[in-house]
Amino acid sequence: MLNRVKGNDVAFEPAKLLWLIQRDFLQGKSVQEMVNEALQRVPNTNGDKNIDLVNQIRDSLASMGDNNTAFSLPQPHLLRTKLCDMKDVELDQMYVTRREQLKELVTNIVSPKIVQGKTLNGTEFVSFLKQIIDALNKGEIPSSGSLVEVFNKGIIERCLKLYSEKMATLDLPLSEESLNGVHDRSRDEVMKVFDQQHFGHHHAKKSIMQLDEQIQKMYKNVILQNEYRSSKLCEALYTRCEDKMDQLQVLRLPSLAKFNAGFLQCNHSFDHECVGPSKTSYATRMTKMLGKSRSQFIKEYNQRLFNWLVVFSLTMVVIGRFIVKFILIEIGAWILFIFLETYTKMFWSVESLYYNSAWQFIVATWETLVYNPILDLDRWAIPVGVMLSVFIIYWWSYGRKYGSQWLLPLYRSNKNDLNRSRTD
């Protein structure tokens, strides 16, 4: 049972045992040393059942070692057969003194026995004690040893439940270091609770080993659960980044700046969100995948941009000459087209163009227009294209008639200028 002290459970307090020894000599040992020695297990190399039974009794009594007191009395008189008829003045005075000390000791260590709310007097307690002894002899109630085992078993179960509840509150996955730290703190707290409530010195050692073994088993299950959740989380993040890299490979308008932004964002999110024991292995896979994607993008980037610029220059030639009829637009487009085609013919390959300073300027200009903090042209390519088409159609239909005077130089017809006076 547990005693209550200001609303808190305290350690089990068994009955006090008083070992009273009356003998003439102690063989150079104190009475407490004699009791402790008497309760030590006897070696049983032959497996004798009787010795096992004796050892079991010794263990049962030793389990209450924290609650026993040893006391010795000297021989009261040499004439032992007449002790009952002797008065105190006839007895050995050392015996009388020790006897009085024994009475004080018993008074200090005993407490009133309460049964069903009633405090027993001496006669009632003797009757109750006889009933207890009869029940023990019949095996109807447990011995002190088995009682300790049952009591400590209950404490172990409560401690394991406390550990399980603490570990269940964890938001897995966690890093191995964090998880081990929580485990150590929870285990220390559980062991502290056990130390406050356990009973019996000898049995407590076995119970502590049993409790620690059960905690380690529970911790192994938590480790496996943490590894599983870590693997699921990191796998999901890896797949998300892999899909993101695949999307960046097929941009309508290739942009190295946009690819780098997506690359860094993906790498950053994986590094911060992927936690647990699986992070190391998935980080290696992630590095390889990102490196491969970047190399592939850069390899195709210049070629795609070159093709786009060729198509763009020819398109602007047509627009500048036949639709908008801006001379400067057509001239600029022709210059770009001639540069692209002539340079590659002169230096034998397109790849040599990519190291030219003029190409670097074109790339910088392209990157500024396609992807910047204000506009992502790849996302808005279709709306911008529709707006430009509407503008071109409007210009083709109305702009040439009403609003062309303030624009840049246009192609002009000389039909209306036949009567213009000639000047030398």
Tell me about this structure.
This protein has a two-stranded antiparallel ribbon. It has a two-stranded parallel ribbon with strand order 3-4. The chain is built from 12 helices and 6 strands. The protein is mostly helical. Strand 1 (4-5) and strand 2 form a beta hairpin. Helix 5 (144-168) packs parallel to helix 7 and helix 7 (201-249) packs antiparallel against helix 8 (256-273). Mean pLDDT is 76; it is low at 1-13, 403-408 and 420-424. 64% of the residues lie in helices and 5% in strands.
What's the overall average pLDDT, rounded?
Answer: 76
End-to-end CA span:
129 Å
Taking all Cα atoms into account, the compactness measure Rg is 49 Å
Approximate shape: rod-shaped
How many helical elements? 12
Order of helices and strands: EEEHHEHEEHHHHHHHHH
Number of β-strand runs: 6
Largest sheet: 2 strands, antiparallel
Oligomer: single chain
Content-based structural category: mainly alpha
Low-confidence stretches: 1-13, 403-408, 420-424
Strand content: under 5%
Transmembrane segments: 380-398
Keywords: Membrane, Transmembrane, Transmembrane helix
GO molecular function: GTP binding; GTPase activity
Organism: Pisum sativum (Garden pea)
Short description:
By secondary structure, the chain is mainly alpha-helical.
Please supply descriptive tags for the structure shown above:
rod-shaped, 424 residues, 64% helix, Guanylate-binding protein/Atlastin C-terminal domain-containing protein, mainly alpha, two-stranded parallel ribbon, disordered N terminus, 12 helices
